[in-house]
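Data availability (excerpt). The following record was deposited with the supplementary files.
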Amino acid sequence: MIPLIDHPKTSTIFFFFPLDSCPSGINLRCYDFIGLPLQWQLSYLDLFIESRSETEKNKGRANVVRGRMARKIFSFFLLFILIFSAATFLVLSEGLDRIKSDHLHRQQRVHQAISSELATSYALLEGLISYKSKDYQRLHQKALEWVNTAGIHADLAELKMELSKSAEFPVDIYLIDDSLIVRNTTFAADVGLDFKHPAFTDVRLFLKNAPDSGEILISQPTMELTSRRFKLYSYSTLPNGGYLELGLVDPDLNLFFKTFIETTKRRDDVNIELFFENWGKLLTPIGTPSAEQPSAQQEIDKLQLPLEQEYSYFKQVVDSAQPLRINRLIDGADLTSYYGVLHSITTSIGLPMRLLAKVTFNNDWVAEFEKGLTSLFVALATLAVGFMAALMFLVRHRLMVPIHTLVKAMRKSQPVDSTAFTAGLEELSFLASNYNLLLKRNHEQLAKLEQLSIRDPLTGLHNRRYLEQIYTSEQTRAIRSDDTLGFAMIDVDYFKAYNDRYGHPAGDEVLKKLGQLLCKNFRRPGDYVFRVGGEEFAILVTASEAEPIVTQFETLCADVMNAAIEHSGSQICNFLTISVGVCRVYPVEQITLSEAFVRADKALYQSKHAGRNQVTEAPDTIHDE
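Predicted structure:
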């Protein structure tokens, strides 16, 4: 061992050994410095140390590059998240504004549709009243005659029963004195009712016009304030002073309004309220009948104050002839109400009467949607930042490599080892497994299609395409085994006549049976049965040169005839028969399938020409020579 050198530039101590005497079993780097001057040895040490330093620097540079790449990837993802967040915020804001606008337009369209539907329905009521007005007048005339006979102080219960029975619906009777006070009536709640009250302007005008017209006047349908039922009223004067009024509770009228009200409740997305505006002074909500019967005066007083604000909105609609939209916050609910006139009429006494509708939409879902959208945006942004590092790792280590492997296998149409994806995403493992399954099924389908392409769909026998595929291979096999091939063409005798007499379905059945007979007679390994045309079949067999081929086909002809398939259209037999042409193919000939067809077809022609139901073998071209 050469004495050690303590290098001045490092704290490393170097020991010098001859190169062939470096200690074994010790992890040392040995350099052949022996024999060099000490100054050279130190120079080599300097170069060695500088090389080691450069290597360390390169490793450091690589680490810096990787760090820069990581920062670039981080910066890219961060920039992407910021751009995505800003774009998402703008898109969601614009989408929310569009949703609000669409919601407003939808409300307007729904309001117009509801108003049109209700107005059309209510217009039908006028036709119903016009149709039944004469019946109402007859009832009133009958009551008038009864009161003139019995007097105004008589018990009206008998008259009510008689009128209700005649009309087949309840009829209330009111006897009113000249001071316009109800003195006698079958409707107990209205006894003493004073029609001079401002709310009964229409009644006063009807009573005022009754003497002048000398006719029975019929009012427009109204809702009776106490019973909440819909009535028609008829008016006339009494000969001895006072007035007679009938309240007609026609079930057809109430059924119409019941259906009309139910129509407003069919929609879950809106709340529809209906009102009558009577003679431009009183707003009456339309509702279902009530079991309670408070006095009319109490009902009028109860309606005035709560509906004052609603009536002011409806008056604006009447004045402007346009629907009115009002946005309000009631009990924390954001509501939009549309006020409109459904139907306007002027009664025979000149008083206006209107059917009004208030359609209210709840906008809470829009506000909730906006809050949810904001929360969703904040949550998405937070999650995006929180999972950025995990996403980077997944993309780099657990996504790209498995996808590359999968795509590479797909491009080569090769199966994928799905167990290799266990360390990656489960979706990729699932995709790989399903790809393998799909590839397997595809191969199976191709195999099935291949079978379908070489099979006759009617008989299930091989077709000519398969014959062309195996002929060469069978010929090659025959050459190796020093055998010969027998090729036969078979034709059903008078098959057209069979189809003409028994029909094509029966002909198809015969072909199936014949195919079964052929397979039964030729089922050895190396025997093939084909259907090559409509009623034409072909058979390819392998036989030794000494084995007679014709005998097998003569047996086949006999079996077909013995099957006793009726064929009255045949000119040679009452049963189905076949004609066969056979040729022997010797290996040394190397003839093509087309040439074999020609030989067998010529032999088949000879069988037919000789009377059919027989076998003819083509001339032996080898031994005849």
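Summary of structural features: Residues 314 and 320 are 10 Å apart (CA to CA).
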